[in-house]
């Protein structure tokens, strides 16, 4: 198991006399630095933020070094391997060190996966990753299995490897950022939930974004399982994207559950079922576990009712497809809150989901220039500088039976530390209205 493997590797110190440069001093970057250090490497942590202190190097050895500021060639001098944190486009590194071997630029996920020998279920997609990852873990634990849940959510895989613990399965949410810099990562079961315009402020275009997502399947073999949405059959059917056995899902093979409403969650559940069956669970065991699953916060979460007006927090909806999924889960009339740092896409794609359901749109914060023009011709639309002002404006016009839906289609960094803080603020505003 992993604990024995890491003990062996740390004894052999396979990275002795090697320099690892870690780009990004966040949790996953520092976890990768600790893993490289345990394997004998010297580490250099590089981050464009200039307000970091050497305290982050604690435990990384006397020769560890922190270099801050814009990326330049000096920061990568003498590197034997470069570990790129999520959120740092690899092209920025290629611009600085164009001759550095591509195979030696990897993600923390790739590095840590080399030292894991448990079965891996990996989940990616534009929307639904966290819900599906959490559901799979919950169902397996309900069935009595010990699992590790992490990757792009919660705990980096490197921290699990360093813990020397042992589980029966690793359940990993993985992002396009991580997958783009994977070379050998090979899940036993890999899920692509969906793909739509997202992170186009990071990826060059949709082709690059899709290619990164499909990397989840690239190292699989015939003994592995690739779980893919049926609506991508035409796009992927003639494409040699994996050697794994492929299963297609469309949500029709499973019934809707009250705690996971909407067509999108039927798709999430069917994909999850296919994955846990790969590990030996039955459909009956899966459904028993599903019934006890509680949805994650800020994901189409009914947070309360004030004077007959229902409030739904879907702050996790950071792209247009997520908004459509939220609207499909709601009954009319809906007063929709949109706004924040826009990550790309065609806003007119929202119109079919909005028609006949949305009665008013409240824009707030950044992104007004993307939403206002395409929506104001069909819907009553207003803009407010803050979320609170927008919520109060919509509430004052609402009637009993209406729904105020925060499903902003954007990242939150124009005004909040993250989508959770945005959702928490929405709840605070609702509570003050009551």
Account of the protein in words:
The chain is an alpha/beta fold and 434 residues long. It has 3 domains: 16-100, 3-Layer(aba) Sandwich (Rossmann fold), CATH 3.40.50; 111-291, UDP-N-acetylmuramoyl-L-alanine:D-glutamate ligase (3-Layer(aba) Sandwich); 301-433, Mur ligase, C-terminal domain (Protein-Tyrosine Phosphatase, Chain A, Alpha-Beta Complex). Helix content is 34%, strand content 19%. It contains 16 helices and 17 strands. Strands 7-8-6-9-10-11 form a 6-stranded parallel sheet, with helices on one face. Helix 5 (129-142) packs across helix 10 and helix 15 (387-397) packs across helix 16 (419-433). The N and C termini lie far apart (53 Å). The model has no long low-confidence stretch (mean pLDDT 93).
Topology of this protein?
Elements (H helix, E strand, L loop, with lengths): L1 H11 L6 E5 L3 H12 L3 E6 L17 E4 L12 E4 L5 H7 L8 E3 H6 L6 E5 L4 H14 L4 E5 L5 H7 L5 E5 L2 H4 L9 E4 L13 H9 L10 E5 L3 H4 L8 E5 L13 H16 L4 H9 L9 E6 L2 E5 L6 H9 L5 E5 L12 H4 L3 E7 L3 H9 L3 E5 L2 H11 L5 E4 L12 H15 L1
